[in-house]
What does this fold into?
Amino acid sequence: MTAAAPATSVAASVGCLRAVASFSSSTYSHFLSTSRIPRFVKPHFISLPSFVASRPLVASASMSYDKELAAAKKAASLAACLCQKVQKELLQSDVQSKSDRSPVTVADYGSQAIVSFVLERELSAEPFSLVAEEDSGDLRKDSGKDTLQRITKLVNETIATDGSYSASPLSPEDVLRAIDSGKSEGGSFGRHWVLDPIDGTKGFLRGEQYAVALALLDDGKVVLGVLACPNLPLASIAGNVTSENAVGCLFFAKVGSGTFMQSLDGSSPVKVHVSDIGNSEDASFFESYEKAHSMHDLAGSIARKLGVKAPPVRIDSQAKYGALSRGDGAIYMRFPHKGYREKIWDHAAGCIVVTEAGGVVTDAAGQPLDFSQGRYLDLDTGIIVTNQKLMPSLLKAVRESLEEKSSLL
Ligand SMILES: Nc1ncnc2c1ncn2[C@@H]1O[C@H](COP(=O)(O)O)[C@@H](O)[C@H]1OP(=O)(O)O
Ligand SMILES: [Mg+2]
Ligand SMILES: [Mg+2]
Ligand SMILES: [Mg+2]
It folds into this structure.
């Protein structure tokens, strides 16, 4: 079972418009007040090489990143609107065979084009470098022409819901260039945006959880992150149960400023915090819905060592980081099968959302994740996430289970 949102819960585009419009006026001064949430262009689409995007070393902590955060929230929210629209059509369509991956392709590319477009428009004075999952290779082929037309239409319709962009509609060539802005290699110098335009493709296809995940690296460190989770209930999903039907969460975090959540249709943000459980027997844990993405048996053996009683909560995507940041569960374990290389866009936004909410994210050896090495994360075996109290016992259980596993081989 998953905490799936019903297809009917996909927000209407009017909600998208309201949400995106509200960001420009949002300030931190009212973050903690008036919460309605229970508890808790033609722009230059050419991506600059990393040496151009690099600047002299600037102390990250002294930067405010307010403008960048506002742009990131706007970009991720608009991209989420596009994804919601595509997912709604996908779920209503008679031809929604799960083997037909074209709708998800359209949404992936469309989301990437929108984020790229919005960031370049909102931050036009800054050098722009984007490390993103998709590229336009297939769309430039003859066989991609129809798909490109569909993406261009979707992107223009979505951008039109936001009153602030009055330029003429994007051409297919503009859309291709926007997608290809994501070819940067990232690295340890300068600023690089990091984007997964749809994280959790399988969840998206099932009508369940997925996320638009956007982060900013400055000199190799994640300094802000935004996770738009259109199908995540606003209320807790602890134990896979939720008391409320309203869905659509936007998590955002900035280095040194904490993590906040608001609804995707524009409520005031509330500060969130990870669970403060100190006894692992009371903890519950998240893992991938897909067995192919993470070894469920290994996580199960670790949970048994910890005395965890609750069954795993299995959901797709970085929505797990968001749910953990507000205390819906206390542990997230991810152990990809041998040979899989983790990409930075699959963890950068989730990582800062959890750490700014008081949590800890490490590899299976207890080392912090290093986002400064290019498009991939080089790490030991897996990724574990929990609060500070539980991390020592989680690391011990992970180490013991990995030793037992290797002794059986
Ligand atoms: N074989 C695989 N093993 C691990 N992760 C994978 C694999 N294939 C795709 N992924 C990525 O895992 C993430 C989702 O994991 P999960 O939902 O299990 O936490 C997504 O980033 C997904 O990519 P994508 O962004 O293309 O959906
Ligand atoms: Mg992903
Ligand atoms: Mg993806
Ligand atoms: Mg993918």
